[in-house]
Write a structure and sequence with these properties.
This protein is of the alpha+beta class and 249 residues long. It contains 6 helices and 15 strands. The strands form 5 sheets. Strands 1-2-3-4 form a 4-stranded mixed β-sheet. Strands 5-6-9-10 form a 4-stranded antiparallel β-sheet, with no helix packed on it. It has a 3-stranded mixed β-sheet with strand order 13-14-15, sandwiched between helices.
Length: 249
């Protein structure tokens, strides 16, 4: 949705003045996209919520905002980060059975991986089920390197692969007029912000987008990672089997 808004809106567009607060949620949004919206004057505030927790859990606000985060927990929310970095949310509810009432307090496991900084801002690092485990036993959230690539504005879509492999690679759908030189330069730039074990050392350029129509995206635009890997398994296997000089560090 934000992509669509930014595509049609122009600087000093009078319609911007009618927007007072635009809450942004769902899939992780590249920082560059949020910054572009901010530069245009759009009051964009990224947040985090789950239907199991009655929607909003944390939210950036005009007086408490940090780009890249999903804000601080709301005053009626308690959040903790488990040892495996999964985000857990405290849920307090009443259970009614045969006219008897009992408390059923618990910590809800969200399935999301994240961290909270020293100022109490929550950052979503990825989905637990999406973790890539390399052949060296490193656990990596693919959303991490993916977001660094998407922030550069050269790509329409990116998906990182590398489960049971010695290094990560990227499936890339570039924007028009993006050259191999600019792709490799952008990957090197992203790798400077990544540890060696999470660096992207190879890539495949796609000629078709991931979409709901071809079964590679969910209805709300999330990647169906297993479906995509299965579809491109031959190309991925060939990529790792034919690796030559990996010079993208």
């Amino acid at each position: 949705m934000l992509h669509s808004i930014l595509h049609v809106i122009q600087p000093n567009d009078p319609r911007i003045q009618s927007l007072k607060f635009v809450a942004l949620g769902g899939a992780k949004t590249p920082r560059s996209l949020i910054q572009k919206a901010k530069d245009l004057g759009l009051p964009i505030y990224e947040g985090y919520g789950l239907s199991e927790c009655s929607s909003v859990v944390s939210l950036n606000l005009p007086d408490a905002y940090k780009i890249g985060s999903v804000g601080q927990p709301l005053s009626n929310r308690k959040i903790r980060i488990a040892e495996d970095h999964e985000i857990e949310i405290y849920m307090s509810k009443k259970v009614y059975y045969l006219d008897e009432v009992s408390d059923a307090d618990s910590w809800f496991k969200t399935g999301d991986i994240g961290h909270i900084d020293e100022e109490g801002f929550l950052f979503i690092d990825g989905r637990k089920k999406n973790l890539i485990i390399t052949s060296y036993g490193r656990n990596i959230s693919p959303e991490w390197p993916e977001s660094l690539l998407m922030e550069q504005g050269l790509y329409k879509q990116v998906m990182v692969v590398g489960d049971a492999q010695p290094y990560l690679s990227a499936l890339i759908l570039p924007s028009s007029n993006t050259t191999h030189e600019s792709i490799e330069s952008s990957i090197r730039s992203a790798n400077k912000e990544l540890p060696d074990y999470a660096s992207i050392l190879n890539y495949i350029v796609l000629d078709q987008p991931f979409s709901f129509a071809n079964g590679q995206l969910t209805e709300n635009g999330r990647l169906k990672r297993d479906v995509i890997v299965n579809h491109y398994q031959k190309e991925i296997n060939h990529l790792y089997e034919s690796s030559k000089d990996l010079t993208l560090l």
